[in-house]
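Sample entry (384 residues):
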Amino acid sequence: MGRKGQARIIEALITVVMVIAVQFMIVGFYQSLSYREPSELEHYAREILNALRERGVFERIGNPTWEYELRTLLDTLMPSYIFYNLTIIGTSGGNVVKVSNIEGLDYTAFSEFYTVRQTYTLSVPSFNETKKRRPVDVILLIDRSGSMNDELPSQPGVTKLEALKDAIVELLNAGIFDPSMDRIGIVTYSTSESPYHNPDRPPDAWDSPPLGHSLTNDTNILQQIVLGKDFKADGGTNMAEGILYAIYNLNGTRGAEPRPEAIKAIVLMTDGVANVDKNREYCGHFDEGLDGYGKAYGGRMYALEMANEAAKQGIKIYTIGFGEKGVEYDFYEEFLKVVKTERYYHARTGEELTNAYKEIAMELTSQYYTDVDIILVELTLAKE
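Predicted structure, serialized as tokens:
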């Protein structure tokens, strides 16, 4: 190849390089035109919407303190010279919620303003109507084993059974449950009084003292049972079959008709280890053996099995361990972890037991129907 040919090749290569360079310059030029730093208002608007979403503020729409909480958050996230107007529209109901510090929503007085709109899908109580609370069906599952006759170390002269009676009566008179929509039942368990332990009992005998009562809105009947002379403590801790009988009452197998719309719950109170197994045999307490519980492990596993059955049927379980803390309370920790109960309480005194019952009742009666709703959120920020 001659020098002229080589020169032409070099010229061609230079031309290609120049063309590529020009193309990069053009692309960079247009990118510089299309990119711009977000304005201060735009930056704050997007930061605020992200913060509201991440902190779950939209899910709490309708709560009594919601507007105050929202205003406080907005004032915290932005400097005082930026004004805001937040509008939330629920697409299912079309109702509008507005939170603003702009007088008359007149933007002409401001030198700059910016508006951003986003949609969110939420499962929240309907905020376009008065919130409707769900009814409650709850069984108070009560341990009446012999150890409930022991005195409370913190209350000399008062047995655990006496403190329990006081706690139940105070709960029933506290006005937390609404008789027009809530039903309460009582199931007790031990080995001395059980329709399972004594197969000769009539099928409906559990509906009468001393065993308890099916779901009812008549709290006077329940108080009469708890305060009756037959409400005594004796025998072993037949917890598993107590749970099973509570399930029967909540799913309609026994007692009142079930209500699909109601929250179903068991509040299980016990002062000791489940020590009755599937064969209805007394397992003992702390015999040497498996996990320090010996044969009692069978009773514990049987109780866990029944509690898991309740969970499968959509029944909430709350557990209360009553009495001074000791080695047996390892059981409650296991029960809480394995069964995934809603909440576990350790009540050392009668007062703590009463408070545990009341706290559970308030939680159960604070649950509302929810709707899946798509909300439109419009946020406008402005500054002078």
